[in-house]
Amino acid sequence: MSLFVAAYLNWFMRVLVRWFWLGGWLLGWQLSAWGGEGDIAAKATQASRLIVAAASDLKYAMDELVTAFRKHHPAAKVEVVYGSSGKLYEQIVHGAPFDLLFSADIQFPRMLEQKGLTVSGVRPYARGRIVVWSSVLNAARLDLPRLADPQIRRIAIANPDHAPYGQRARQALERAGIWPKVQGKLVFGENVAQAAQFAQPGSAEVGIIALSLASSPSLKAKGSYGLIPEQMHAPLDQGYVILKRAQDLALAQSFAEFLAGEAAQAILQAYGFSLPAGPSFHEP
After folding, report:
1. How far apart are CA 65 and CA 45, in angstroms?
2. Mean pLDDT across the stretch 154-159?
3. CATH T-level topology, domain 47-127+237-270
């Protein structure tokens, strides 16, 4: 082989290697770019998505609040998980992926704050009330002692072990002096919304439930209610907090700020909540 041919082959091989190297680099760069775009898209989706844990007494009010919020943030995807405040607290402690907690008892957000699981201070948003509700009796005329009547065979309440509304229902029954008489009648819901379901025909004649649920169009059309005096139980002071998972989520802060606005407060009041600005609001 002549020196010219050898030199040419040597040059050709070097060029070929460079082209392979450049092609590989470009391919790697392109794949990286595709991955980067995917990461950006994923982050954008995450930034526009909010997962809210809410006490079940907020079921109807929160649905309206989310609708009102999305009018100002149309790209926002707000998912709400309802449950008893005690159960939601336990889920958050064990790592449930929530961005905010709205609790029917302000003590649960405070305990999360003490555990270092929040990125905001605990903010009160409302005070709840409990009512006697019935679809078969005129609940407006039912005082608590009447619940001991043998003709009332089942009374639905939220489970006092973990539901603030169940705890307040038990307190009211105890202060009325009828707890021992009605214990055998009680049907426990996992939360106050389930207690309201049990109080509808077929399960229980009466329920002790949240005013916010009794005030909903759905339950208004099916039954009647009577307010239980506030002095019969500890206050149902409610609060919310932004959780650690949402520390870089601007949407969480926007939702929290929305809750402090007049539009949100009007919705809460429409469902029977009193607001924390009121002089009777309890701040321990």
Report:
1. 21
2. 98
3. D-Maltodextrin-Binding Protein; domain 2 (3.40.190)
